[in-house]
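User: I'm putting together a teaching handout on how multi-component assemblies are represented. Below are the sequence lines for each component of a complex, exactly as they appear in our records. Could you produce the 3D structure of the whole assembly as structure tokens, so the students can see both representations side by side? Please keep the chain order the same as the input.
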Amino acid sequence: MSTVPDSKLQRQPQSFAENARRALVNRPLQQALSIATGKATSARHAAVAEVGAENWELLRKRAHAIKAQTINNLDFYLDKFSSNVERQGGHVFWAETADEACDYIAELAHRHGLNEIVKSKSMMTEEIGLNHALAVAGIEAIETDLGEYIVQLAGERPSHINMPAIHKTRGDVADLFAEKLGVERTEEIPQMTALARRVLRARFAEAGMGLTGVNYAIADTGTIVLVENEGNIRLTTSLPAVHVAVMGIEKVIPGLEDLDVFLKLLSRSASGQKMTSYVSLLTGVKSSRAEEGPDEFHVVIVDNGRIKILADEHLRESLYCIRCGACLNVCPVYRKIGGHAYGWVYPGPIGAVLTPQMIGLDQAAALPFASSLCGACGDVCPVKIKLPEMLLHLRHKVKEAEPPESRTHYHSKEDTSEALGSLNGFRHKSENSDGQSAWSRSRKRLSNVFEHLGFRLWAIAMTNSQRYQAAARLARLAQAVAGRRKANGPRVLPMPRWTATRDLPPLARRSFREQWLESSGEPTGDMARQDATHLKESQRAEQTP
Amino acid sequence: MRISLFITCVVDQLYPEIGTAMFNLLTRLGVEVTFNAEQTCCGQPAFNSGYHNEARELAGRMLDLFTRELESVDYIVAPSGSCVTMVKKFYPDLFADDPQRRAQAEQVGERLYELSQFLVDVLGAEDVGASFAGRVTYHDSCHLLRELGVSLPPRKLIRAVRGVDFVEMDEAEVCCGFGGTFSVKYPEISSAIGQEKVRNIERSQAETVVACDASCLMQIGGLLSRKGSAVRPLHLAEFLMASEQT
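Assistant: Of course. Below is the structure of the complete assembly, with chains in the same order as your input.
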């Protein structure tokens, strides 16, 4: 368990397409995803129905307004929060980068002579790669949330924002426990949880430092709020002498009176619960031995690219996210490929929006396109983040950022031969620092060139109805040729991957506009689809030269 | 009442029979129907793929055309929630920095309707005089449902058909996985999502699946046909017309 987590696992959104294809043929994963997202979605649906659609909408609007108020005045509220933390004996550390945050925590552990800490589930610590950084510094971080514990035992990363082990079936966990904990294999859930509890309780008893994330930071009081179901956060924050809470700058809300709306939205959106089993409001350090609470309390406030997000008015609202995971559960894409395919910390629609902003557009250009833009994510978001619009905006940014050369010609001869080499199936084995092969890089570049060129030509054709018709006639001719060859050879349709699993209807012999123009204002033709399809088939055969 | 048809590219090139059915249906309901053959594409494929310049070129052209049309007709009606969404919702976004175009888009948008919405909300016609023997289910197209908020009108129209056995499938409101260029960029994911839709359709034991967008029907129909399924995909316009003959 003390192995250093593989840091390379942390950034692989470039291989999204490949990751996704692997996930699609992973049957246990498909089963696990279908069950878990199905349950979460219907539980959420029932919980929202109970509140009533109108009330739910009011809550969402209120939450959106509170977030807007704080995010637009972030400096003010953060200042207030931090001075209130300090006033009550806490320490505040401002970390601009992930490394700064990790270094501070590692140093703190060293100062207390600790080589082991217990921690609760926190996406923020995933984001900054804390476990890895601590391991490098010789400190073992023990995950105490059951799902996180499972993922940590397996040497993996969470694949969901609040169901970290969603990708594992009960059988997977039984195998894992038997292997890693040396116990007899059982698939009985009460037995498995009891086992995890026994192992973890022992670590809690010895721990000198507890590390948590933060759900909400209350500016007025300097309180941090933590929401959970397992009770491990209670233990993490009450047993060890030192409590360290790590939060992104966006977690602050103005006052305690604002908390209610978020608690109502979060648990219902995440799991369909009216309320989670535990909600902890923690303020400062204990002032006497008789009181409860830690001797030392540290809040690490992390930027890690968030201020940059603030600057983009189209994307700023992605900082409103309260990490409920509802957008993942309803996303048809997430439900099919799971979280690991997205290649970084935050998966699903919110991940496709956050990841390119946090690790760079060039590193995660595939993600905004990994959506059918169905809009389900925007519909369920409890804080009304316009996720589909943000995906569209990021798609535009990706295309704008592609080198202008890709729109017309190649950089150099070398690039051209590399790209053409790749077309002939020649695969370079060399890898660059991103772990992408030269083959996949050049292939991507080539397809970008074709795409830019294609949309240019398409726009030229479409801005004139004669050109549009000429293009359509050309396509029909191509189809007639391809259609004939299809009968006695391999598929030669223009989109072999599209048609690998689906039939593509043939182009109609006469388009609607042609029929309209020929009949001068009265379309002719058959009503029934079946007849029309037959007609098209025979016409296509006729057309074949 | 006089309307002008907005025939989308997919209908024009792949399913002209949907346009024909729509023409006949509206004519039967006493609407005078016209069509401007100068129209091409609304620009959605470019817009969704991040090519805003190309999308703006087409959008500007279509806006001018629609504005001219609206001088002589009351409404523009399209057999697609997606293309209507493009004009009503995304044109104003696309022209955020161009107040004139933006205003033009909003004006056109006010008089632009998707077919089922037009039939029920504008014409007040739920019973279009059709009859159909068979079990039918309905698939909600994403843009129509979530951007235009149209969920009831198509259901009302289907339910009003005499003899129809309408059944809701599970997850009717979940995407079919088409997503335009998404189905080209990520065909495997797109297909896998579509398979779920097909499973839900088959589980409903419907013989016909009706939708209001030809592109969803292309996805669903393509998967059904590859499976050799007997379930028939029909556009609402075709369904309301085809049913008249049975």
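A couple of points students might notice: The two ends of chain B are 29 Å apart (CA to CA). Chain B touches chain A through 76 residues (CB under 8 Å).
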